[in-house]
Design brief:
Strand 1 (17-19) and strand 2 (22-24) form a beta hairpin. The chain is mainly alpha-helical and 293 residues long. The strands form three sheets. A two-stranded antiparallel ribbon has the order 1-2. A two-stranded antiparallel ribbon has the order 3-4. The radius of gyration is 22 Å and the shape is globular. The protein is 43% helix and 9% strand. It has two domains: 5-218, no CATH class; 233-293, no CATH class. It contains ten helices and six strands; from the N terminus they run H-E-E-H-H-H-H-H-E-H-H-H-E-H-E-E. The protein has helices at residues 5-10, 27-37, 40-43, 48-62, 74-85, 88-119, 146-157, 177-185, 189-207, 235-240; strands at residues 17-19, 22-24, 140-145, 213-218, 263-266, 289-292.
Length: 293
């Protein structure tokens, strides 16, 4: 395991430790998760406020140097959602049934990741399919089991991913603290329903552990296949460009099929995959460009 380049590229972004080819949680984290998995009568976690305190204690047990402090109002956001915005019946079910299930997902995360990497080179005719950090212009495919996806999302809900190195690699937000902070600092019904959608996903995977796998693939157009006479600037060129756009006419309603030739339908949600889903953005970002020539 230690010699796998794909795992090496991901270790700075995972909350787990690696030793003797084994991924594992620190012992204090394991004890906290086992307590949480036994339900609220044992863990005493029966409110959003107490859940956030437990999350903070688990984060402290990780003792990772790159684990930044959470958003200032995340505490209030967890409390607001679980103690006020959902019914007492829903909250009781959440803390009695779902939170223990989430703790079990986290307890299985090390073994799920180990299994993922052990099988990663045998799924697609020897091609690499393990989770890894792809650099610019690197093509690749990743196969993830749905149970592993669930465990990784639970990890984000508990805000356990290290984040300090993500900015340098231009990686988007992953922990849920901003999501819950936003519902407190600038409440909107859209934000509340977004969290309810995510919470419902957690309820579903705790009720029935998902099977099957999901693939993510990045395809690139190799520069070797492009005409030598054409220059293709890097992303920074477009980000910093101050060149004005050509003359155009914007229509904010109607359908592209109703337009004459020479029209484009564009919907750019965000420069990151997923857009601003973990802040105030839409839960499902999309970036289509349709041409009507």
């Amino acid at each position: 395991m230690e010699n796998r380049e794909d795992l090496k590229s991901m270790l700075p972004f995972l909350p787990l430790l690696l030793r003797s080819s084994n991924l594992f949680w620190p012992s204090q984290v394991v004890e906290s998760l086992k307590t949480l998995s036994k339900g609220p009568l044992y863990s005493k976690v029966n409110s959003g406020e107490l859940l956030f305190i437990t999350i903070s204690n688990i984060r402290d047990s990780l003792a990772l140097p790159s684990l930044h402090r959470l958003s200032p109002y995340a505490h209030e956001g967890y409390g607001l959602f679980f103690d006020e915005l959902i019914s007492r019946e829903e909250a009781s079910k959440w803390f009695a049934d779902v939170v223990p299930g989430l703790a079990n997902f986290l307890l299985r995360l090390p073994s799920l990741l180990e299994s993922h990497y052990h099988n990663a080179d045998n799924l697609l005719n020897g091609a690499k399919t393990g989770i890894r950090l792809l650099g610019p212009q690197d093509a690749g495919v990743v196969f993830l089991g749905q149970e592993l996806i669930g465990a990784l999302l639970v990890c984000a809900f508990f805000c356990l991913f290290p984040v300090s190195d993500r900015g340098a690699k231009r990686l988007p937000t992953i922990n849920f603290d901003h999501l819950f902070e936003d519902i407190y600092s600038s409440y909107s019904e859209k934000q509340e329903n977004k969290i309810k959608c995510i919470i419902h996903y957690f309820e579903r995977i705790c009720l029935s552990v998902p099977e099957g796998s999901v693939s993510f693939e990045r395809k690139i157009l190799s520069s070797e296949q492009l005409p030598l006479c054409v220059s293709y600037p890097k992303a920074d060129f477009w980000i910093k460009s101050v060149v004005s756009l050509c003359t155009l006419e914007v229509h904010s309603s109607g359908f592209i099929e109703d337009q004459s030739s020479g029209a484009l339908e564009v919907d750019f949600s965000n420069k990151y995959l997923g857009g601003g889903a973990l802040h105030r953005g839409l839960c499902a970002g999309r970036n289509p460009v349709h041409d009507q020539s």
